[in-house]
Design brief:
By secondary structure, the protein is mainly alpha-helical. The protein has 10 helices and no strands.
């Protein structure tokens, strides 16, 4: 078995196992202090039929895609974590339009720690520097968009998306500038195009739908195909 195929298989299995833990984690997420009247509880979401299998396959597939293209396997643990927990967050956000701080905050810390580990294994401090710069730049951009959305578009952009952008930017920034650009931009493109299609089909509400799933998938696109797409 080639080194690349081994990395793909190991990454798929690791992310799938992490994704499968999602329902257990959901049962332990505290509910918002003032939840919307129609909000489904996290515990109820955890009982969704075939959820464990769905999250496992989704997480494993995302990690495998990145593993098949990544130049530095030392950074793959970062993407196993992002794919695994990202599958949970995407599912939760899709059904509640919320990205719980109780999940995003520890994911940020774990991602940061894994980026530091990857930089140490590569013996390249620039990996950490690039990740931090991307984190700051992307966070500021999303924070500005959140301010405009709150002020002029009635909160169309959630603060949970701002927090999630920091997590994804750390992982993308560690890979490079082109990965960061493509990964974040792809999220907006997917959100705009698919959001428009799904709202047209009345699958989602055109006045407000979850952006988190598009951000996660967009980040995977950036991590896997960022350099090639960036040059087009």
């Amino acid at each position: 078995m080639s080194a690349t195929l081994t990395l793909v298989v190991v990454s798929f299995v690791a992310a799938a196992l992490l994704g499968a833990v999602g329902p257990v984690a959901m049962r332990r997420i505290p509910e918002p202090a003032e939840p919307a009247a129609d909000k489904v509880t996290y515990a109820a979401l955890a009982e969704t039929r075939l959820l464990t299998l769905g999250l496992a396959v989704t997480a494993g597939t995302m990690a495998a895609l990145v593993a098949s293209r990544i130049d530095h396997p030392e950074l793959m643990p970062v993407w196993v974590a992002i794919a695994g927990v990202g599958s949970w967050l995407a599912f939760i956000d899709w059904h509640t339009k919320l990205l719980p701080f109780a999940l995003v905050a520890p994911t940020y810390l774990v991602t940061f720690a894994l980026v530091i580990l990857g930089a140490a294994l590569l013996r390249d401090a620039q990996v950490l520097v690039h990740a931090l710069v991307a984190n700051i730049v992307v966070y500021v951009i999303f924070r500005i968009m959140y301010w405009f959305g709150t002020r002029y578009f009635r909160g169309a952009f959630g603060y949970g998306d701002v927090r999630l952008s920091g997590v994804l930017a750390l992982g993308l920034g560690a890979l490079g500038v082109s990965e960061t650009f493509v990964g974040m931009y792809a999220g907006f493109i997917l959100g705009a195009v698919l959001g428009l299609v799904l709202s047209g089909l009345r699958v989602v509400d055109a006045k407000g739908y979850a952006f988190g799933p598009y951000m996660v998938v967009g980040a995977v696109v950036g991590a896997a195909w960022g350099p090639s797409l960036y040059r087009v």
